[in-house]
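Worked example 4.2. Below are the chains of a multi-component assembly; read each line carefully before continuing.
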Amino acid sequence: MSPTPPALAELLDSAAAGDRVALARLLSVVERCGGRSGEVAGYAYAAPPPYTVGLTGAPGSGKSTLTNELVGVARRGWPAGEDGAAAEAVGHVAVLAVDPSSPFSGGAILGDRVRMQRHATDPSVFIRSMATRGHLGGLALAVPEAVRVLGAAGFPLVFVETVGVGQMEVEVASAADTTVVVVTPGWGDAMQASKAGLLEIADVFVVNKGDRPGVNEARRDLQQMLDLSAPSDWRPPVLTTVASTGAGIDELWDAVARHRAHLVSTGGLELRREARLEQELRRVLAALVLEEVRALAAGRRFEEAVRAIAKGELDPYRAAEDLLRRRRGGVGGTSVGGTTVGGTTVGGTT
Amino acid sequence: MSPTPPALAELLDSAAAGDRVALARLLSVVERCGGRSGEVAGYAYAAPPPYTVGLTGAPGSGKSTLTNELVGVARRGWPAGEDGAAAEAVGHVAVLAVDPSSPFSGGAILGDRVRMQRHATDPSVFIRSMATRGHLGGLALAVPEAVRVLGAAGFPLVFVETVGVGQMEVEVASAADTTVVVVTPGWGDAMQASKAGLLEIADVFVVNKGDRPGVNEARRDLQQMLDLSAPSDWRPPVLTTVASTGAGIDELWDAVARHRAHLVSTGGLELRREARLEQELRRVLAALVLEEVRALAAGRRFEEAVRAIAKGELDPYRAAEDLLRRRRGGVGGTSVGGTTVGGTTVGGTT
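Applying the procedure described above to all two chains together yields the following structure tokens:
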């Protein structure tokens, strides 16, 4: 018999007090149950959001190494701005490594363990991988909530790194305050970045593996694409790094800091975050409502309706309206209460 | 001033009496408004469904010419079966040419007019192209409803031809009683058909443009893929046609008829149709519910909720539950009534 899992309230207290094991468990709850754990969401969103830096790019572009190096530099704090803004300490730094294609998470990935080593002795750095585990709404909802949990647990800076460049990865990475898009000289022409929608989300471009041939071409392609895009008050800088040697990492961190200063001074940060909250709320709404539909489509009334349509007694539109009209109490009252998770599923593997 | 558009009830009567202009207008209503036109859906689903043959394949595979030829042969009726089933007259034949990528429909496509010529003098053949025009749920819902409208208007056989091989095209084409997948010798290896999900949906394979080199390789590739797929009580035959000369069309129609006889004798037809109705009802439910979410996300309460979350007073999950709890009457009562369409949007272009 395993020991009784701690209650959610205890986990929240411990995580806030700096207990990393409690924090990891809390993130597992988010991953598995998302907003169902009313208490976790309440805890997470009561605190101000951490500054979030998203990193995305094709597999093999060296994102993980880059993130790793960036964490080292970021630990030194935000540099003083050209506009006279003072340098700022950062304190604790967290990394969420998100892999939508993997069923594994919570340190189960080999890469995670390898990467942990570099910062293993630094209690101020927390690294955690995340995958979808049946979360309501998937990673698109689990990641923002996890970021807020990290913020509430005392991390003012969170890196969100995604594996792959699918729609989901791009979506997750772009839900950041500053989004860094990583390409490599061998990655092909810049058209691909444009096709994948990366051009629209990038606040900073990095050509990593900058010691390989084709760096100048890659930089030029990106600049040309930027020349063609709609003018904006921020033109993404195009930087070169060699993550494996650390070359260019200071400059990358400076660029992230410049973008942050720009967002703060123009009021863009607030707008971005509000737009993100709107999207989050819309997604939660859609997810809860989808649950209702699933429940409706699984019931006996649904089967009866299908049979009635098959007999020509009913059409699908009237049937759907009937089913929707008959649901009682709506969400929240019955099927999707905030209490279903709290006491029962908190334990388990982390 | 254009003349007052006829009421929906009149259109239904006229279409059922064989008025093709009324039928075309009815299909425009389906395309634009879908199940919102409660009367149309009621009319469409009260009659038994027509036999539906879906045709899909890559652009340039000659689907349109093939469908055209097939219509000519189908007009002769269902052939007598090997199992002693008697030949059967078909009567009227309809073709729905579906192009998810086109905003045009209703005969606006050049190809439509060209194709009309072949059967222009045959009052028993009705050809109509369809595209998405803001239908609730898009083509995935509009096409099944249009098929049922055609059935109710006296067409016992409907061909649904889709342009392209995207997810939507495949989905639309596979929602048929018999699905014909068209490939060409130049289309590349059979792996592509497998990748595009065509292998799973095909009841009959056609290698069209069978007078070109590579026919045997294409046939062999398909057979090998079929060897590898899960055993089933129906193995899709692989036929060769030259649609431009009419070669192989009789054999194709025979194969469709054999598949139909197989479905009828095994009870598979009923199962297929029930599964399809289930999916349709699920889609209508999802579409109606999505409308609810859109309405919720557009209101003042939504904005207030976002502001409360931004202030840390609320989390998105509690906010979503509040919004859902507060909606009154649900769907059907207010926003998605069955009467909103009837009198107002029936006229317009067809």
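Take a moment to check your reading of the output against the notes. The beta strands of chain B are 51-57, 93-98, 125-130, 157-162, 178-183, 204-207, 238-240. Confidence is low (pLDDT under 50) at residues 104-113, 329-350 of chain B.
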